[in-house]
């Protein structure tokens, strides 16, 4: 009931403002009427529309009803014109003209209450502190006294000065002073005090409420600057310019409330705001075009059928333009929710440049969230996961299964914009299509992960086999062959026959040559220092013997007994990084650290040298370090800046390979 009432008031106010324009022009040709200000019409249209949209989510919030008060502007003008026609034009009085005349004397007072009370009550309609409650009571009391004085003052109506107030009492002209004092007290004093409270509340607020108050503060500043520019300008401004400045100022508060609703979840009304914006934009366009058409018709062909034709043409343009305006607003607020193919195309363009499935999946959820203006989108599966944004508080999300080759490979979750978020069939189709693409990416990610695991296992088995072969060759076959060579040498010395002795010495030399070749093969299978000193000792050995740079190391005891593949990769990366730092960095200090954290070996080599130039192309050394890390399923990061040194950081998984 409250929502319908708010909608009715807003529609009545907007319709009254639209009807005021032709009625004013028609009546101005017959009697003297006050000038019509576009700022009043905007006040009576935009404020109530925003208030009605806010009432959809929180119909009991006083802020909504305060913003609906200016809806009286349109009916107030029309009733005054009705009284003026009855009193000054019609042959005999029309029924109820006295009521119209009376309302025409005070129907503008709604903003005496709205202007100071909206910043006091915004955003939740509560007065939490005693000073704010006292201020609100004073404003209501003073504005009420001013309204009563306006109702009873002996004067004509504002839109039609020639129509007297039927309740005005002769001799009570002092009520004019009361009205002016109350108007200044509420509009100036009350608004100024409310602005001070708004600043204090903004400084104390946190989170979304702080941002909402900041937006209202910005709208209030716009209105204040517009009013001050009119008061402080010494140059006589044309009436149209002053009216335009006033119009811009009056748009500030409702625009800030609209932004707070749309961007920061105030009142949960973003789903209706699109049509309200369309209605407001079209109303403003119709009013503006109508004014231009009327003025042009008077200059071109006064009193002819041309003006009527131009008005009909204007209405036709407005009707045809509504769809285009609605589509533009929908794209701004909700993305491509009404065009599934546009959603899929947008996601496809964002996913295409990705270099690997995990990166492509992150691009997919980012693009889906952007295309549909969603607060949250995420994909979950054993192979890959990605998330974008944060779920709206209390709104939850919708889940879509992602399939590929007949298997369900994950779940795509899209956050709802609000609890009452309507989910259209086109949005459903768009997200389902994107979910199928996510399933394909998840399948590809699973294949890539399987290949990486297989490669890692193959490498691990290879290095373990190399370690075993090296031990067997070094400790078994090598010594056996060397011993056989010694025996042949002893045999050659005991043989008396020179020919047989030469044959024995030839066999001895060949056998010793074979031992040398065997040692070369053994050295190539695996760095000997790893078997001699272990990874800790081998890494420390890399830093031995350098005076410049000064080398320091910090190596965890858990680095002992790691898988052979990880040991070889870590040693090779450290050796290359240390060699690069010594040869090229001109560093004065070099630090090597290695520790195991959560089944991951973290190896870092940091120097304080000149760094890597910005346009430097990675050479064989940097590429080989990256390949070494990738072979065991790890990652290499090189962080550098000119004059700030270089950090080489390798993360190598060890948990699955022990």
Automatic annotation (TrEMBL):
GO molecular function: ATP binding
Organism: Streptomyces griseosporeus
The entry's keywords: ATP-binding, Kinase, Membrane, Nucleotide-binding, Phosphoprotein, Transferase, Transmembrane, Transmembrane helix, Two-component regulatory system
Documented EC number(s): 2.7.13.3
Keyword set includes Transport: no
Reactions this protein catalyses: ATP + protein L-histidine = ADP + protein N-phospho-L-histidine
Record carries keyword ATP-binding: yes
CDD domains, sorted: HATPase_UhpB-NarQ-NarX-like (cd16917)
Annotated Pfam families: HATPase_c (PF02518), HisKA_3 (PF07730)
Name of the protein this chain belongs to: histidine kinase
TM ranges: 36-55, 62-79, 99-122, 134-154, 174-200, 212-232, 244-262, 274-293, 299-319
Superkingdom field: Bacteria
Domain Histidine kinase: 573-656
């Amino acid at each position: 009931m409250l929502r319908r009432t708010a909608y009715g008031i807003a529609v009545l106010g907007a319709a009254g403002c639209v009807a005021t324009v032709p009625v004013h022009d028609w009546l101005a040709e017959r009697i003297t009427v006050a000038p019509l200000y576009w700022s009043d019409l905007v006040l009576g249209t935009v404020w109530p529309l925003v208030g009605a949209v806010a009432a959809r989510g929180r119909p009991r919030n006083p802020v909504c009803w305060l913003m609906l008060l200016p809806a009286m502007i349109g009916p107030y003008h029309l009733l005054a014109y009705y009284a003026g026609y009855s009193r000054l034009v019609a042959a005999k009085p029309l029924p109820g003209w006295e009521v119209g005349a009376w309302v025409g004397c005070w129907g503008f007072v709604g903003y005496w209450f709205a202007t100071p009370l909206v910043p006091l009550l915004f955003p939740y309609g509560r007065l939490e502190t005693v000073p704010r409650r006292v201020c609100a009571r004073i404003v209501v009391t003073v504005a009420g006294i001013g309204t009563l004085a306006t109702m009873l003052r002996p004067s004509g109506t504002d839109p039609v000065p020639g129509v007297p107030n039927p309740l005005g009492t002769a001799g009570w002209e002092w009520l004019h002073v009361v009205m002016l004092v109350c108007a200044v007290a509420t509009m100036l004093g009350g608004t100024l005090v409310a602005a001070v409270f708004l600043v204090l509340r903004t400084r104390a607020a946190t989170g979304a409420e702080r941002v909402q108050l900041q937006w209202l503060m910005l709208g209030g500043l716009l209105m204040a600057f517009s009013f001050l520019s009119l008061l402080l300008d010494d140059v006589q401004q044309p009436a149209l310019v002053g009216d335009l400045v006033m119009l811009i100022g009056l748009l500030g508060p409702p625009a800030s409330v609209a932004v707070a609703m749309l961007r920061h979840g105030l009142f949960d009304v973003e789903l209706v705001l699109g049509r309200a914006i369309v209605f407001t934009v079209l109303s403003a366009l119709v009013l503006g075009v109508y004014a231009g058409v009327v003025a042009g018709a008077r200059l071109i062909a006064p009193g002819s059928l041309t003006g009527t034709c131009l008005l009909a043409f204007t209405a036709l343009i407005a009707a045809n333009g509504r769809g285009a305006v609605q589509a533009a607003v929908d794209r701004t607020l909700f993305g491509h929710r009404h065009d599934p193919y546009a959603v899929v195309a947008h996601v496809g363009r964002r996913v295409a440049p990705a270099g690997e499935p995990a990166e492509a999946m992150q691009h997919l959820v980012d693009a889906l969230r952007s295309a549909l203006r969603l607060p949250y989108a995420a994909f979950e599966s054993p192979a890959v996961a990605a998330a974008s944004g944060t779920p709206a508080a209390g709104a939850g999300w919708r889940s879509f299964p992602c399939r590929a080759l007949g298997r369900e490979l994950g779940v795509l979750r899209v956050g709802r914009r609000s609890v009452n978020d309507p989910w259209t069939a086109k949005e459903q189709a768009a997200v389902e299509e994107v979910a199928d693409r996510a399933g394909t990416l998840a399948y590809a990610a699973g294949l890539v992960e399987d290949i990486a695991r297989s490669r890692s296992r193959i490498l691990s088995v290879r290095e373990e086999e190399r370690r075993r072969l090296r031990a067997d060759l070094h400790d078994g076959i090598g010594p056996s062959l060397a011993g056989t060579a010694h025996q042949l040498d002893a045999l050659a010395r005991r043989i008396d026959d020179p020919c047989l002795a030469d044959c024995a010495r030839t066999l001895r030399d060949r056998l010793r040559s074979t031992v040398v070749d065997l040692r070369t093969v053994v050295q190539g299978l695996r760095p000997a220092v790893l078997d001699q000193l272990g990874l800790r000792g081998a890494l420390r050995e890399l830093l031995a013997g350098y005076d410049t740079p000064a080398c320091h190391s910090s190596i965890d005891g858990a680095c002992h007994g790691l898988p052979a593949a990880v040991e070889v990769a870590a040693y090779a990366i450290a050796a290359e990084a240390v060699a690069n730092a010594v040869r090229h960095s001109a560093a004065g200090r070099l630090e090597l650290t290695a520790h195991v954290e959560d089944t991951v070996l973290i190896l870092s080599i940091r120097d304080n040298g000149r760094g890597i130039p910005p346009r430097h192309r990675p050479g064989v050394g940097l590429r080989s370090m990256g390949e070494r890390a990738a072979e065991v399923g790890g990652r290499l990061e090189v962080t550098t800046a000119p004059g700030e040194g270089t950090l080489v950081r390798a993360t190598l998984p060890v948990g699955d390979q022990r």
